Amino acid sequence: MISSTDNSRHSRAPIRLQQADDAPATRAAVAFAPPDEARSISCVIPCFNEGPNLRRLLPLLEDILWATRLRWEIIVVDDGSTDDTVAVAEAWCELSGFRCISLSRNFGKEAALTAGLAAATGDAVVLLDGDLQHSPELIHTMIAQWVAGAEVVYAVREQRSDESRFKQLGSRLFYSLVNASDRFAVPRDAGDFRLMDRKVVDALMSLPERSRFMKGLYAWVGFRAVALPYTPAPRAEGASSFNTRRLVGLAIDGLTAFTTWPLRVVSVVGLMLAVPAFAYGAFVAVDYLLFGNSVSGWTTIVASLMFFIGIQMISTGIVGEYIARIYEEVKGRPLYVVRRERGTGLETGRT
Ligand code: UDP
Ligand code: MG
């Protein structure tokens, strides 16, 4: 149930802005928004064990959405949380505008985002994390840009000083690999915190693949995008779910979903090794047959054998990664399973 402090929300009190420094952005949103136009906006929040954070985020977000004077809905997607995330979110669903979709288990952030996008009914959809790292105050500026004509407004991290050197290096390597060959680039410092127009959401949802590396899919669909620099706040409560193992898994998903050049590299490396090896073999055979020089150097043979076996295994591994993705796609399982849905759709911010 909603706590006593939460009950004050039932009154739909007039809007207070949380921080003085958002005021200019708010004014911009209101000035740009044609008051009579019934635009609507959905906010999708993927959540995995974010109970304490949701208690802070939902009232903040509600105030911010009221201030936009648009019709709005907030969709919490519970990604198999084991804490009180569902209880907190469903308590808010007693108010109109709030919805909660509970998935049957933890399917991962990308699947949770997809579930939220599929359920969203707004003319624009904002994606934001449930841990208050994506400051909801930025939504005003996003809406202002959208009303002014942008189809995508994405937040770009201004600096990554909060990340370890290892993570920064890994992310630089990943983006240079994933952007090595394609006609579109996945921007390095842009994440899931973004506003997308309905056209963009429909385009995203029309992509049939199961391997959903969202950052790549956003870039692939294109549209007129505006970047919005921001500095992510530290996580409010709890710890990030993305440890090194999960990040490496995500990077491999991204690479296999958006590149095929590693397969070509395998062929080229194979060729570059096989041709000289064949030539050398021919030379040794001729040398022995014509001049009687027998081959010596057991160590060299063993070392080169191990080297070539290593290359072969890496190559098979790379091919295997692609085959695994094909297998995933062919199975055609749904991306997520919904346990239950609560709440009703759009609230009107002008009543
Ligand atoms: N999340 C999710 N499913 C998962 C892992 C994370 O829905 O399996 C959500 C999480 O609750 C948060 C967002 O995705 O709202 C970002 O996760 P996190 O803060 O752990 O990642 P980071 O900020 O380190 O990228
Ligand atoms: Mg986070």
Write the layout of secondary structure elements.
Blueprint: H1 4-7, H2 23-32, E1 40-47, H3 51-68, E2 71-78, H4 85-92, E3 98-103, H5 109-119, E4 124-127, H6 138-147, E5 152-157, H7 165-178, E6 190-197, H8 198-206, H9 214-221, E7 225-230, H10 244-258, H11 261-291, H12 298-331, E8 338-343, E9 347-348
Parallel strand pairs: 1-2, 1-4, 2-3, 5-7
Antiparallel strand pairs: 2-9, 3-8, 4-6, 5-6
The protein binds uridine-5'-diphosphate and magnesium ion.
The site of magnesium ion has 5 residues, from loops.
Descriptive notes:
The chain has 351 residues and is an alpha/beta fold. The chain folds into 2 domains: 40-234 and 335-342, Spore Coat Polysaccharide Biosynthesis Protein SpsA, Chain A, CATH 3.90.550; 260-331. The chain is 49% helix and 15% strand. The protein has helices spanning 4-7, 23-32, 51-68, 85-92, 109-119, 138-147, 165-178, 198-206, 214-221, 244-258, 261-291, 298-331; strands at residues 40-47, 71-78, 98-103, 124-127, 152-157, 190-197, 225-230, 338-343, 347-348. Strands 1, 2, 3, 4, 5, 6, 7, 8 and 9 form a 9-stranded mixed beta sheet that branches. Helix 2 packs parallel to helix 6 (138-147) and helix 3 (51-68) packs parallel to helix 4 (85-92). The longest helix is centred in the C-terminal third of the chain and has 34 residues, at 298-331. It is elongated and about 95 Å long. The two termini are 25 Å apart. 32% of the residues are buried. Mean pLDDT is 81; it is low at 1-36. It binds uridine-5'-diphosphate and magnesium ion. Uridine-5'-diphosphate (UDP) is lined by residues 46-48, 50, 79, 106, 108-109, 112, 129-131, 133, 235, 240-242. The site of magnesium ion has 5 residues, from loops.
